[in-house]
Every structure is written in C-alpha cells, then in structure tokens.
Specification:
The protein is an alpha/beta fold. The chain has two domains: 56 residues, Signal recognition particle alu RNA binding heterodimer, srp9/1; 54 residues, 2,3-Dihydroxybiphenyl 1,2-Dioxygenase, domain 1 (Roll). It has two helices and eight strands. The strands form two sheets. It has a four-stranded mixed beta sheet, covered by helices on one side. Strand 7 and strand 8 form a beta hairpin. It is elongated, with a radius of gyration of 16 Å. The two termini are 31 Å apart. This is PhnB protein.
Length: 131
C-alpha cells in the first residue's frame, strides 16, 4: 500500500459514482456485486466492493440497509500538484459537470492555481498546481 485510499459508502449509487470517476481520472475499474460475493443482504446488483485504480484511487460500495451513506462535511479530497496543469484543469472541468463550482480553478495572488468543486455525488475536491 502506497498511501491513503478513501473508501466511500454511497446510497445505492456506487456503480454510477465509480464509473463517473473512471471517466474523469482514467484507470482500471473493478466492481463486485453482492451476488458476486454470495451475499443476500441487499439487491444482488448492489456494489459490495468497488475499486478505481489509476492516477486517483478510490474504493466504494453501496451502503447496506441501516448503514450510513456518504455525507461529507469539512472534508476536501486534495489533488494539489498530482498531475500536470492541463490534466488537473480537465479533471476540474469534468468534476464540475453536474456538480457545483465552489471556487473556480484560477490563478491566486501567491502564484499558484487552485479551485474547489463539489461533484454530482457530493464529494468536494481541491485541485491545483504551482506556476
């Protein structure tokens, strides 16, 4: 393991969210359903465990009945300097699609570019680069 990998619990939208993130970031997507794992504690096609592996790594599942699902407050997923400026700008634009620009990606007085966006699944991202 090379670092922290967020594990998100979605309210029945894990497949859609992880597919969206693969479209944004690229990488390999692995989706395992409840049926794949022989579980019967929810809809057979619900995601029991999903993984996006690539330049941005995420794990996710669908919350089971009675379990809390994604609700983020005071949390930013920071992608500061994690790719070249053009890639980061493309990621910001893609995450903005169907989401909300909190603070546009722009040049700051200290010389860096950054911005914040909450995507359509409720995840808030801080994206930026130097120079």
């Amino acid at each position: 393991m090379t670092g922290l990998t967020p594990y998100l619990s979605f309210p029945g939208t894990a497949r859609q969210a992880l597919t969206f993130y693969r479209e944004v970031f690229g990488g390999e997507l692995v989706l395992n359903t409840l049926a794949d794992f022989g579980r019967n504690d929810g809809p057979p096609d619900a995601i029991s465990h999903g993984m996006l592996q690539g330049p941005v790594e995420l794990f996710a599942s669908d919350a089971a009945d009675g379990e809390p699902s994604l609700r983020l407050e005071g949390v930013l997923f920071s992608l500061l300097g994690t790719a070249d400026p053009g890639t980061l700008e493309a990621w910001f634009a893609a995450l903005s699609s169907g989401g909300v620009d909190i603070d546009p990606l722009q040049l700051r007085p200290w010389g860096a570019h950054d911005g914040q966006v909450t995507d359509r699944f409720g995840v808030r991202w801080l994206i930026g680069y130097e120079g």
